[in-house]
Design a protein that fits this description.
The chain has 418 residues and is mostly helical. It has 17 helices and no strands. Helix 4 packs across helix 16, helix 5 crosses helix 15 and helix 8 packs antiparallel against helix 12.
């Protein structure tokens, strides 16, 4: 049994129904007018004979076209005449034909490629993005979607992903090659110098403000027989030299201690990549860290802080994140407008993506047409289709009435001549 899934009448359908009935009244009125003229001019000769012949032919044309139009959607006068009520009876075949037509003429790879090339998508998008207002609109919409997605992510779900997916994956993945390669890249770019400077600055500050703690630590290692006065002099001297030494390292980018540290880090990077013993120790350290129960708690704390900060940045309409993103987007649009190679690359990517999507999902997309029409109730589907196209079909009836009348006049004239 077919179940109706046709969308209920909307306000627009009400307007379509009114316009359809108005055009049906016009077409029916012309038929009625032709009938009246025919009756009034019966058995008349001369000019009125032509009028009578035209009226008679108008009635024939009007009735024939009424029958043809009506037969599409229902049985004329309710009579089960063969080959009528075509839409209710043949809706499934129409659906399959429409699916094939759509697939062959719209989801064809060559057609899509041709239309995309003609559309010049990248140039148009680039020109649109150069308008700051448009760039801000894009950023605002993206920020809204991103903020909504972040809010929908529950902490327990994130914790489950970290605990059940990420940590086991990290434990199974060897860390030595990654750490070694990353350390080599850092050393090549001298990216570690900033961290070294920070560590030296903090160590220097701590020594300056914690002389007593430094003396206590050093004093614990002094011989038991050494006089306290001597220990105090030695620790004071060591403290002063340590401060001077760190100050020298901070001032001199080429200090031998810095070079020694760089050499140590380079050796560590090489060992992580090639020394089995170092790799084994690194793996054991990784496992000890990841197996700590506090690992998940720490990770969730970092995630919560990151999400909170990101949400605040996304929701700040005048904030630096949105302004920077809008500026970068507008700059990208300008670059697209003047860079032919970039436009070609973008158009190629878009074309490949659309062709891939059509090749992978085209059949499922067109199948929606057939599946939807098959679920429709025949009568309701017919009524719905008639609302959309029935008004235009009434012009067939009107044209049939007018053209039929003209043909009737011509035939009457030919008959008189013959």
């Amino acid at each position: 049994m077919t179940t109706s899934f046709v969308t209920p009448d909307s306000e627009a359908d009400g307007l379509r129904r009114t316009r359809l009935r108005r055009m049906q009244a016009v077409a029916g009125g012309l038929l009625l007018l032709a009938a009246v003229v025919y009756l009034v001019t019966r058995n008349e000769d001369g000019f009125w004979g032509f009028v009578n012949a035209g009226a008679e032919a108008s009635m024939v044309g009007a009735i024939a076209d009424w029958f043809a139009v009506t037969a599409l959607f229902r049985h004329p006068l309710g009579l089960p005449i063969p080959h009528t009520a075509l839409v209710p009876r043949k809706k499934d075949e129409f659906g399959r034909s429409l699916e094939e037509f759509f697939s062959e003429n719209f989801l064809n790879e060559s057609v899509i490629g041709e239309r995309l090339a003609a559309a010049d998508v990248s140039r148009r998008v680039g020109a649109w993005l150069t308008d700051p207002e448009n760039a801000r609109r894009v950023v605002a919409e993206a920020a809204t979607v991103a903020a909504l997605g972040l809010r929908k992510m529950r902490d327990k779900d994130v914790a489950s992903v970290v605990e059940e997916v990420l940590i086991p994956r990290f434990m199974a993945e060897p860390i030595s090659p990654v750490a070694g390669a990353l350390l080599q890249e850092i050393l090549t770019d001298n990216a570690h110098h900033g961290l070294v400077d920070l560590a030296l600055e903090e160590a220097h500050r701590w020594l300056v403000h914690n002389q007593e703690t430094f003396s206590d630590v050093i004093g614990e290692r002094a011989p038991w027989w050494a006089p306290d006065r001597l220990n105090e002099v030695v620790t004071t001297r060591l403290h002063l030299e340590a401060i001077r030494w760190l100050a020298d390292i901070r001032r001199d980018p080429e200090h031998h201690a810095r070079q020694a540290l760089d050499s140590l880090l380079r050796q560590l990077a090489d060992d992580l990549l090639h020394d089995a013993a170092t790799q084994e120790r690194a793996e054991k350290l990784k496992l000890r860290v990841l197996e700590q129960p506090q690992m998940v708690v720490t990770g969730m704390s970092l995630w919560s802080a990151f999400r909170k900060g990101l949400l605040e940045a996304l929701e700040d309409e005048e904030g630096p994140l949105r302004e920077r993103a809008a500026g970068e987007l507008a700059a990208f649009g300008e670059r697209v407008g003047r860079d032919d190679a970039l436009r070609t690359k973008l158009d190629t990517w878009v074309g490949d993506l659309v062709v891939w999507a059509v090749g992978r999902y085209g059949d499922e997309l067109t199948a929606v047409i057939t599946q939807t029409i098959e679920r429709w109730d025949g009568k309701e589907a017919s009524d719905k289709i008639e609302l959309h196209v029935g008004r235009d079909l009434q012009f067939i009836r009107i044209n049939g009435t007018v053209v039929g009348g003209l043909v009737g006049v011509v035939i009457h004239a030919v008959s008189l001549v013959l």
